[in-house]
Amino acid sequence: MRYATVTLRWRGRRLTPTDELFGHDAAIAVESIRYVNPVSDDDDRYVELLEVRGDLEKVRALLAESSTALEFAVTGSDDRGVVYVQWRRADLVDDLLSILREHEIVVDWPMRFVGTDGDRGLEITAIGTSRAIQRAAADLPEGIRVELERLGEYEPGVDPGATLTERQRELFAVAVREGYYQVPRETTHRDLAEILDLAPSTVGEHLQRIEAKLATAYATSMR
């Protein structure tokens, strides 16, 4: 059994109505999709469970005003919460779910949003046979760009990336994208600091903590 972790990026289409509802509001950030699926095979609704960060009262208000949110509930405290919502089935998620079902691909939830507003993507870990994963990737709708992050034999255990906070995952993704871990390095703490609007010393401290967490988690998974 194989797994492939990929980042999907697209333009011109919404993933779900959530994109339109929350996507342009600086007070709300959707961090991951814990679950999304049709309510039933003969129904035109699907359910979505989201992790959000930001103004939860505004999340409730936007959902209450939406003409496409059929039912919803928001739970959480401070600036983090979980949103349950039912939508009419539509948008890009329909195509993606159909491909996963057709090729009998299992998703290792959650699907995580990565990157910045200008280059945002959805990170998905798909589990199945090598052939099924290859065929599913070949059937993706036109306009979706696929970036392979990790590929290998699936063995349940500790996911090193799961030990990182959302902020650490974002910073680590920027460091990888900018070539910090290439040999030789293609960027510096100062370069990353300018992108992330942080002090170079703060970037260095964050990367040290990230690397320590990843190394510890990886060593634990090998026992």
From TrEMBL:
Keyword annotations from UniProtKB, A to Z: Transcription, Transcription regulation
Occurrences of domain HTH bat-type (ranges): 164-215
Residue ranges of domain HVO-0513-like N-terminal in the record: 17-154
A Pfam family matched in the record: HVO_0513_N
Keyword Lyase annotated: no
InterPro entries assigned: HTH_bacterioopsin, HVO_0513_N, WH-like_DNA-bd_sf
Domain of life: Archaea
Protein name per the record: Bacterio-opsin activator HTH domain-containing protein
